[in-house]
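Re: the 234-residue chain
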Amino acid sequence: MRAGTGIGRMDLIYVDESGDIGTVNSPTKEYLLVAMIVPEESWHELDARIAQARQRMKAQLGLDMAAEIHAVEFLGGAKLHQGLETWQRLWVTRWLLRELSRQNGLRFAVIARPKELQSEVFISTWTALKESVDNKIRGRAMLITDVTDRQSVLRAIGRHPAGNRTANATHESSFQAKLIEDPIHMDSRHSRILQMVDLVAYLWRQKLRPNSLFQKKDPRELIRLTTKLTGTAE
């Protein structure tokens, strides 16, 4: 094992995006990625925090435990979504941000890149995220993302598909030397933690380009809490 790779330490890197990469008739002007780095030894505590919060939401608001919190709909313009009014969904969001802020050891990387004609914004944003995360992880790591363009992610992080990989790792980057397995792509419906990353990414989107809801005072407090949690974008 190379020196400095943190023997015995492992991080789980959860990544989600906000916005699309299109440049024609797209509603977004930036492509944004958020990574939440969870120390392996804190994973069960974090999962339990989120589960307990969801249990309280079920008891107090009637929000189904299995309901996906997908931010673009959950914090969208609908007056009623999943049986909750707008103010209740904002309350849920504040609740979840509070749980994340209470969890020791979480680290974040936020990368926002403007979309320009002919630019490969997907590749450039993922490459920047890889470099940022490489400076934050302690040792070995696994990368878990929402379903996205697998081949482009592999290209951006400098990872050859498994069938084309050789045993000679002499020229591996620092990140490659730490990464275990190819990125794991998971539908966020099946991961409460990915749903939290999706929520943070959406709130960062609202910080950059707020919709009518997030131009109001109380919703903007959620943006302040998000920035406090993650730090600034790169």
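Helices lie at 43-61, 71-74, 86-102, 121-134, 150-156, 174-178, 192-208, 217-230.
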